[in-house]
């Protein structure tokens, strides 16, 4: 009878089976390590009804995996849920925790904490006044408000540049070139230095004047700032005036044409008088000077004539007799100046 030994064979089969299972498990873990990352677990995150899914668009999202942290300042406010692309931009799905308080106009940047660390999204609050809307309400962060920080390749390249001494070599090359460029130009450098010294001396000499000028300019600036409303109103009035002038352009042109025509007529009139206006004005000037001489006598004479007319009217009553004592001063001047030509219809 043949003896069978099943014990050792069974043990070897079980070991082989366990080894195969472990190999398959390792392969699955290697192929799905991003999705199996501990970052993808929502530990301490609010995934209830108050959470909000936000879409962020980046130029690129190298090494950013689902589960990466989303930080607002020093606070952890969410995690990356999906990393996708629309053919041109990286589309990142982020879930924010409830009541995160992140404004809608934040700036998102993919950063790398260390050369061997995992990338995360840093949200930076905007400068100045913040938006009253929240990111969890708009649920979208466009490409204009996102960016990518220095990547691993750039960091390692900078480190390699420093470690390889290429930066020091370049500095030495620059110093050598400067030495060659400045060789033989000591006099020019000395002159430039002397000019600089003189400029500094002048500045020190007139420092008080410069300070007073700066203070005066500051006062003028302050005065202009204090009267900004008045300046704005003046500019508005000036704009209205220019608008009115533009609207009345035809009227202004017509007035200018009329003025030009009047000037031509005056010139024709003065040319056609053959110099008679100047003598007439000279005669009128002499007449006025003579009238100024007896101006003191005209007043008493007129008062006497007025009293005479009143007394004459009281002395004689009746329809058969009336005395006209009115004094025709224009007619008298006409008789004295022109000999009665104006009243007689003669030329002026």
Automatic annotation (TrEMBL):
Residues 53-126 form the Mce/MlaD domain. InterPro entries: Mce/MlaD, MlaD_Phospholipid_Transporter. PANTHER family: INTERMEMBRANE PHOSPHOLIPID TRANSPORT SYSTEM BINDING PROTEIN MLAD-RELATED, LIPOPROTEIN LPRN. This is MlaD family protein. It comes from Dietzia aurantiaca.
